[in-house]
Amino acid sequence: MFSLQALETTVSFDFTGPAYKFFDDPFLAPYNDRQARMFSLAKNAGQKAATWVRDQHPELFTQVISDPPVMESNVSHFLLVLYTFTSSI
To answer: Which contacts qualify for 41-48: CB closer than 8 Å, 24 or more apart?
Structure first.
C-alpha cells in the first residue's frame, strides 16, 4: 500500500487529458461543457435503455451471465475482504 502511495507522489495529474469517463472513444471526446453534459446524458440513457430491454424481454438473452448468479452482497463482501487484505500488507 505504501509503495502505491509513494508512486502516486511521483506522477502529477494530467490536466490536458480527457476525463476518465470519456476514454471509451477519444474521437467523440467533448470539447466544451455542453458537449460533455450531452455525452454523459446520452451514455446514461443508453445504459438505462439496455437495462430496460434486458428486463422486459429476458427471452432474447439466452446466455447465462454467471453461474451461480452474483449477488450484490457477495460483491460488497468480496471488496471488503480485498480491502482488508491489501490494507494489512
So the answer is: none
